[in-house]
Amino acid sequence: MIPAVPGVDLASRIVGGSVVAASDESFGFKERLVDPAEPAFVPGTFDLRGEVVDGWETRRHAGPGGDWAIVRLGAPGRLCAVDVDTRFFSGNHPQACRLDAAVLAPSADATGPDVPWTTIVESTALKPDSNNLMTVTDRRRWTHVRLSLATDGGVARLRAYGEVIPDPALWSDVTIEVSGLEQGGRVEWCSDAFYSDAGSLVAPNRPRNMGDGWETRRRRDVGPEDHDAVVISFAVPTDLKRIEIDTSYFVFNASLEVAVLGAAVDVDDEQGWAAVSFDIPVLSRVRLAADARQVFVVDARGVTALRVQAYPDGGIARVRASGTPTAQGLQQLREQWAECS
Q1: Contact 240, 198 (CB under 8 A)
Q2: Nearest one of 140, 145, 99 to 122, comparing CA atoms
Q3: For residue 196, which of 5, 22, 54, 113 sits 20 to 30 Å off, Cα-Cα?
Q4: E strand or H helix that includes residue 8
C-alpha cells in the first residue's frame, strides 16, 4: 500500500516546481527545498561552504526580519497542508515560520513590492529534525508560496500538498493526458508497493531507471486470474481515446499482461474507493512487451477513474490515459475554477 498523504506535492520538481528567490543561501542551496527525494545527511562531509547539508540553510544572524524563500508551484492548485521539513537540522533549525501565497504569472517578479501575498499559515513554532505538518484552510487556488522564517536557519524540504486545479480554457477542444499528475490525475490505491511507490505511474516525466516506476513483490502459487491492481482517478469525467502502458527499464520483471477497467461515478465520502464499481471495459487483457512503451486505441465514455490490473505481478513505469472532458466534466472544471478564484 502507498502511504497516505494529504494530497499531491504541488511544489515538487516532479511537476515543475521551482524556488525562484531566497533571501540567502550561504550554507545550503534553495533549490533543495523542492527536491522530490527524501533528505539525507552524511556527518563530517565538508566543502568550501562548510558541512554539506541536504536542504536550504542561511547564514547566522538574519536580523529581525528573518529569512525567506519563494516557490513557484509546478502545478497551481488548492492547498490543504504544508510540511516544513527540518530533518537533520537540529542546532541550526529556524525557530518558527509563516506561509504566504499569491497568484502570479510564471514570468512575474515574485519579489516585487506590489505582490499581493496572503497569509495561509500564521507564525508557527518549528520542531528540529522533524516533519512540521501544518493545515491550510484557505480554499483558493495559488501559484506561488513564500516561506518566511522568524530567524535564520535550515529547512530540508518544503512540501505543498493539495489538489491540482486545471485551467478549463486549456482543456477546451483538445485531448488531455487526464491521468497525469499535472492535470489532476491521482493514484488513489494499489494492491502492493513492496519495491516502489505506485505514485510514479502518473508522473509527467519519462522514467529514469527501474526504481522510477511501480513494482510489486513476486506472487507465488497464483492462478490465471490473480493480479495486482492500481486505481487512478481523474479531475473530471472524460471520454478516453488512448491508453499508454510504459514498462521502460523493466526488462526481466515487467508485468506479463494488463487489463484496464473504468468507473463513471464519484467517490463516496464514507466508503471511498472500496465502494466504487469498475464496470466499464476500457482495455481487454493484453500481452505487454518488456522495456517498451505500448499505446492502445480505446473508446470509453464518461470515465472518472481507472483500475489497471497487472497479471500476475511485476513492474510498470507509467500509465498515461488521454481523452477529452465530457460536457459535464468541462462545466465542472469551470465551476471549480470560479470557486477558487
Answers
A1: no
A2: 99
A3: 54
A4: strand 8-9
Nearest C-alpha neighbor of 151 from the set 72, 80, 86: 86
Under a CB-based contact definition with an 8 Å cutoff, are residues 215 and 253 in contact? yes
Residues in the chain: 341
Going by C-beta distance under 8 Å and a sequence separation of 6 or more, which residues neighbour residue 84?
Answer: 97, 126, 132, 134, 147, 155, 158
Closest CA to 224 of 313, 314, 312: 312
N-to-C CA span, the chain: 35
Take residue 238 and report the three cell numbers written for it: 472524460
Would you write out the chain's pLDDT as a tens digit for each of its 341 residues?
A: 333 556 899 999 999 999 999 999 999 999 999 999 999 999 989 998 888 999 999 999 988 889 999 999 999 999 999 999 999 999 999 999 999 999 999 999 999 999 999 999 999 999 999 999 999 999 999 999 999 999 999 999 999 999 999 999 999 899 999 999 999 999 999 999 999 999 999 999 999 999 999 999 999 878 889 999 999 999 999 999 999 999 999 999 999 999 999 999 877 666 678 789 999 999 999 999 999 999 999 999 999 999 999 999 999 999 999 999 999 999 999 999 999 98
Report the alpha-carbon distance of residue 174 to residue 325 in Å, rounded: 9
